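Q: Second attempt. The first request was missing the SMILES, so the protein and pyridoxal-5'-phosphate are both included now.
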Amino acid sequence: MTTREDLAKWDAQDPLAPLRDLFDLPAGTIYLDGNSLGALPRATAARVQEVVTREWGAGLIGSWNSAGWIDLPHRVGDKIARLVGAGPGELVVADSTSVNVYKVLKAALAIAAADAPGRNVILSERTNFPTDLYVAQSVAREHGCELVLIEPDEDPADRLDDRVAVLMLTHVNYRTGRMWDMAGITAQAHERGIVTVWDLCHSAGAVPVDLTGAAADFAIGCGYKFLNGGPGSPAYVWVSPRHADRFAQPLSGWMGHAAPFAFTTDYEPAPGIARYVSGTPAVIGTAALECGVDTLLAAEPYGGMVALREKSLALTRLFADLVDERVSGFDIESPRDDEQRGSQVSLTRPEGAYAIVQALIARGVIGDFRAGQSGLPDILRFGVTPLYTRFVDVWDSVEHLRQVMESDEWRDERFSQRLAVT
Ligand SMILES: Cc1ncc(COP(=O)(O)O)c(C=O)c1O
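A: Got both inputs this time. The predicted holo structure:
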């Protein structure tokens, strides 16, 4: 049986261990929520200070040119592209994930209407993140389409028929961490003339992604989770070069115009991905996002996403095994199969999930809780971030969980009071 001493040795031998120093982590805290909000990179505070005081304060409006603010969404987009198997000039930082879902769904429907006319179904999954479904509901209404949702135990491949215009999936599920086979599903969708939209919120920086290799069509994702961009960080959008120039996206703002500073009356989309920018970029947030993305690129000399993935799998496997061995009363909702698991372990229990997470947080072990929906159970989520999560952190977290359960500490009334953000 594995002991804490064994795990301390694993940490001592871990070639990725030095990357933890890139983060400013509070002492006495085990942070297992980088799948919700990534931790603060050490470089971010100084960089944001520089943007605010030197570039904005001293440089004023001239910094759009002299500090390169105008190119920032593309420069940071190119860096994110390296993490998701996209080429330079194919991915741009812009808006929020929700807004980008709207843009790409509309563009995907336009492509489907041109290439395979007469289809009226957007296919997605019931346990997709709600914002994706809410936006898809609006888009479906606007287009007179039907939004059809597969159940968690269904295979999307079984539902791909010639009524489906667009298949919109989240690559790694926010509740369970289950990961779809992007290349396989995209190929099956393409065989039936269906356009694909992939949400990479829980994938970019967490698992290797190869958008080009998968021949995917559209992808979107956020900056604040595994990319460590900070709260409210801007999101990103990728469009296959096969499609980028074919349609103007619907939020046709001036920053996606071919010549924004010509101030013409009529919209003319910029070539390529630049048209997916709508308004003025969020400079401070994008500068912070760049620091976050840089923490992942710093892993390149150590083997990059492949090495991070190997460690992530070892961490999540360990977490699940230790829960099996040392704690009773929980089911493990995340897939046991490495191929199908993202960078988190989700547990379920008939009662007390919220209170147990709160009791752990009071002990300095930060995971989170996601309410059950549509007959699905409440979930305790524990995300691992191989850049900074240590093997002993996994041991200590499970030990805290064991103690919280055995002492009934979680039943203390204060842990049941729901906060605004769970
Ligand atoms: C898969 C997925 N999509 C979208 C979002 C959120 O979208 P937004 O960044 O617009 O808040 C989340 C947030 O957790 C998510 O997990």
